[in-house]
Design a protein that fits this description.
- The chain is mostly beta strands.
- It has one domain: Porin, CATH 2.40.160.20.
- Helix content is 4%, strand content 68%.
- The protein has one helix and nine strands.
- The protein has one helix at 94-99, and strands at 2-12, 16-28, 33-51, 57-75, 81-91, 113-122, 125-126, 131-143, 148-159.
- Strands 1-2-3-4-5-6-8-9 form an eight-stranded antiparallel β-barrel.
- Strand 3 and strand 4 form a beta hairpin.
- The longest helix is centred in the middle third of the chain and has 6 residues, at 94-99.
- The chain starts with a strand and ends with a strand.
């Protein structure tokens, strides 16, 4: 088992920077496979397009404040690591989003929980026998509404056992 922290640096919908931070845990099942989970706080910048009352296309930016809990299958090898799975996003500021929703978007359009599919590739660098730093390239997409992003993340973990 490994426990540590993770810094998230996401490019959401290919245009907006979304930072995050959190705690990460890895449970080893076999020598090369295991489960990865965590608890992350992220800012997801969202851009909503809509048609106003005059029929003119317009848009509005809104930063979603999100708590994310991923559950990923993890395959470890010396050259490279892979993960794949799902994450649950819980939107903390949903009520504020609903109150300031763009014209033409019903408050029912917004959902408190979102399901996110995610895959990643990473490389583990051992600083000593129990401390590992791991840069990661991750891609994700919201299910079923689409959209998503790519991220360059870095984790620092300590091997517990």
């Amino acid at each position: 088992m490994e426990i540590g922290g993770k810094l998230i640096s996401e490019l959401a919908d290919w245009k907006s920077y979304g930072p995050g931070i959190g705690l990460q845990t890895i449970f080893n099942i076999t020598k090369h496979s295991g489960l990865e989970t965590g608890l992350y706080f992220k800012i997801n910048p969202k851009y909503y397009r809509y048609i106003d009352g005059a029929g003119i296309f317009s848009g509005k930016n809104f930063p979603e404040k999100v708590v994310q809990v991923p559950l990923l299958y993890r395959f470890d090898s010396k050259p490279i690591n892979f993960t794949a799975g799902l994450a649950l996003d819980y939107i903390l500021n949903l009520e504020k989003m609903k109150k300031s929703s763009p014209f033409g978007l019903s408050p029912d359009y917004f959902h408190r929980l979102e399901l996110v599919s995610t895959i990643s590739v990473s490389k583990s660098f051992y600083l000593n026998k129990s401390l590992v730093i791991e840069p990661e390239l991750r891609a994700s997409a919201f299910v079923p509404q689409g959209g998503g992003g790519v991220a360059l993340n870095v984790s620092l973990r300590k091997m517990i056992f």
